[in-house]
Amino acid sequence: MFRSVVGLVAIVGVSATIPARGADAPLHLNHQGVIAVQGARFNGQGDFWFALIDPATGGNLWTHDGSRVGEQNQQPDTAVSLTVINGIYNVRLGDNGMANIDSSIFNMHDVALRIWFDDGVNGSHQLAPDQPASGVPFAFRSATIDDNAVTTTKIVNDAVTSAKIASSAASLNKVSGGAMSSVGGNVGIGVSPAEQRLHVAGNFKTNRFTLDQDGFWGRMRIGTGQPDGQTRLYLRKTDGVTPADLYTGAVSASSIGTNSITADSATLGQEAWQAAALICQVNFGFGTNPAGVFKDSNGIVHLRGTIKDCGGFNVPLFDLPVGYRPANTELFLIPAGPSTDSLIPWPIRIRNNGRVELVNTQSFHDIKVLDGITFRAAN
Q1: For 262-314, what is each residue's pLDDT tens digit?
Q2: Do 2-132 and 274-376 come out as alike in CATH topology?
Q3: What residues have CB less than 8 Å from 66, skipping those under 6 apart?
Q4: Which residues of 298-308 are buried (b: 16+ CB within 10 A; e: fewer)?
Q5: Distance (Å, rounded) from C-alpha 40 to C-alpha 2?
Q6: CATH of domain 2-132
Q7: What CATH number should be reported for the domain whose range is 274-376?
Q8: What are the sequence ranges of the domains in the chain?
Q9: Residue 173 to residue 177: CA distance in whole angstroms
Q10: Given phi > 0 = left and psi -120 to 50 = alpha, else beta, which region is 271?
Q11: 60 pLDDT band (50/70/90 cuts)?
């Protein structure tokens, strides 16, 4: 038994060859479907037949090869070979040598897409159910457009270029709905006139702040109150912020998020531990750390965890993600043994491809402790 879950992409392409004015434009329909054979998603090369039909009569309104049009419940003569991956296939109906789809087909309210499929083993079968296609849009190209016919919803994004806009027709205030202004080269957001090159009234958020100074120091004004009337937070590009870079009392602890900059120090927050995807081990438990990895702000990778099981030669434990791997293979000694009260030093190897493995291990080394392993990640 065959099953197909079919979806039609709502917007379809219009052929570059447009019929004479007043005629219907041929369509190219992007169609994607999911095909399953006896409940399992099909993989491989399959033969397909496509037809747009009148559900009331079963009559073919269009077929991909132009055959059997007007006939009822008839499969087209020739197949289309498509590649199916994990049950999913894609095809552009009406294109790539197929018969043109006349847009007038969709003048009727009910149009459906009928599909036949052959997996090369079970023969040709009609897929069920037929898929409604009456919502597929069509377009006409005309020499003229009615006055006021083009509204904002009819204009494609990025369709209007700056060359099409008169120099006096649009100002920053206009295009921003009054939220932005520009006076004398200064840009204001939420304020007018702007007093600086960028003048923002209220809070702003950015994913990145670049300081264009001498390449070493930058300056960000964060308030007032110092003898010179300004409180400044200095940012050093090379090695971060140190306590000496801050005026005393310039930043209060309540103003800084957890694990960020405190009132009397400059501490960088660290990323959370990532759980290691163990290959044949399991976490030991009993209050010990689960296997995990994180990289600190200096590029140092830290490992932790107590794991068990999987004896043998060069036992793989897990693989480190890209960006958390050493430049060269590194060796460490870790506690290992049959139980937590009989651990001995044993070598562990971390390869530059990310593989973490015990070296020449014995089957009695059931427990391995990774806490305290650190190394610098490759650039």
Answers
A1: 444 444 568 999 999 998 889 999 999 999 999 999 999 999 999 987 766 67
A2: yes
A3: 99
A4: eeebbbbbbbb
A5: 9
A6: 2.60.40
A7: 2.60.40
A8: 2-132, 222-269, 274-376
A9: 6
A10: beta
A11: very high
